Amino acid sequence: MQCQETDVEEALQIEMSKLMSDYSAVLVAACGYGIGSITDNDESMLRHADDGKHSDVKIETDMHQKLKRVTIPVFSGDKCKYESWKAAFNACVNQSSATDEYKLLQLRQYLAGEALSAIVNLGRSAAGYKAAKERLERKYGGTAGRS
Q1: How far is Cα 59 from Cα 28, in angstroms, rounded to an integer?
Q2: Is 111 helix (H, G, I), strand (E, B) or coil?
Q3: Facing residues of 49 across strands?
Q4: Strand pairing partners for 93?
Q5: What is the pLDDT of residue 90?
Q6: Cα atoms found within 13 Å of the Cα of residue 123, Cβ hemisphere only
Q7: Cβ-contact 24, 46 below 8 angstroms
């Protein structure tokens, strides 16, 4: 009988460790998205559940929380501003893991005037996103004709 109790206790211990690890991963991710903050109690739980991988994530999360949020300017067609707009858009949206359809919605949000008119009829699909980026690059990219 005591052998069964030990097995049950070990199984519970393993399950509790998994839950603590999952909780700490979710907590760190939530902080990374600015949804919450880590309390002293959470900090001790993270240390308790830490298997070596959470401390690096926490340091990175803390660093990102202290950085000023990057804003993407709205691009309306001024060729002189295209490269800096494109760099901000690529860093914040294009390189994300979001779907191309979602990225297209984001792209439309950061365009206005002539630039928005250039892509407005390309649909709302992944192919439309690719075509929109190509059209903007053809129309506003490169160095030809700039002073």
Answers
A1: 10
A2: strand
A3: none
A4: none
A5: 92
A6: 9
A7: yes
Structure token pair of residue 126: 């992944």
- Here the tokens at position 32 are 């990374």
Each residue's pLDDT tens digit, 53-71: 555 555 666 666 677 777 8
Q: What amino acid occupies position 37?
A: S
First to last CA, the chain: 86
Whole-angstrom Cα distance, residue 38 to residue 41? 8
Residue 88 near residue 70 (C-beta atoms within 8 A): yes
Considering only CA atoms, which of 18, 24, 58 is closest in space to residue 41? 24
Q: Cβ(78)–Cβ(92) under 8 Å?
A: no
Average pLDDT over residues 30-36: 57
Q: What is the 3-state secondary structure (H, E, C) of 123-137?
A: CCCHHHHHHHHHHHH
